[in-house]
Amino acid sequence: MGAVAGSTVENVIYSAVDTQPSFEFVKKLDLPENRGCDKCGISKLPFRSKHCRDCNRCVRKYDHHCFWVGGCVGELNHRKFYGFIFLQTLIFVWDLHFALSSYFSRFEDFKRDRKQANHVGSVWIFFVIFCVIFLMLTGGLAFYHSFLLCTGQ
């Protein structure tokens, strides 16, 4: 199960990285109602387009510049980015479930051997705290992007 989930996340992140966020390379017209980019001299349609200072490009339906994707999240790769964060959230839920169930299934063994229990308990606590923190971060991001997706923003 873990290998399948890991390879699925790996495929989704590679497709999000490889897909360009959609750049608009149409030269700006001299019409007053045309909203163009002063930095790169191109028109930006639709209105959610923005110039990214990190990529030095204009991106259609700009969402954000993502460190994990290694570029901008825009019109063409937003769906793949959403799939990536959703799968990451599911993996942290699965990891937390695995950590809790494995600890409590060995609880009787740990009562007999205190030295092993202290070592395993400290590693287990670190892993659970790690999972909870990253579950809150990725879960919050997945929830926020789900809200944006449902409201059409």
Automatic annotation (TrEMBL):
- Write the lineage as a comma-separated list: Eukaryota, Sar, Alveolata, Ciliophora, Intramacronucleata
The regions listed as transmembrane in this protein's record are: 81-100, 121-144
Q: What is this protein called?
A: Palmitoyltransferase
Span of domain Palmitoyltransferase DHHC: 34-153
Gene Ontology terms, cellular component aspect? endoplasmic reticulum; Golgi apparatus
* Alphabetized PROSITE patterns for the sequence: DHHC
Q: InterPro entries this protein is in?
A: Palmitoyltrfase_DHHC, PFA4/ZDH16/20/ERF2-like
**What membrane topology is annotated for this entry?**
Multi-pass membrane protein
Top EC group: transferase
Record comment regarding domains: The DHHC domain is required for palmitoyltransferase activity.
Keywords per UniProt: Acyltransferase, Lipoprotein, Membrane, Palmitate, Transferase, Transmembrane, Transmembrane helix
BP terms from Gene Ontology: protein targeting to membrane
Localization of this protein: Endomembrane system
What Pfam families does the record tag this protein with?
DHHC
Can you tell me which family this protein belongs to? Belongs to the DHHC palmitoyltransferase family.
User: Per the record, what are the reactions this protein catalyses?
Assistant: L-cysteinyl-[protein] + hexadecanoyl-CoA = S-hexadecanoyl-L-cysteinyl-[protein] + CoA
Which GO molecular function annotation, any one, does this entry have?
protein-cysteine S-palmitoyltransferase activity
Q: What is its main location?
A: membrane
E.C. number = 2.3.1.225
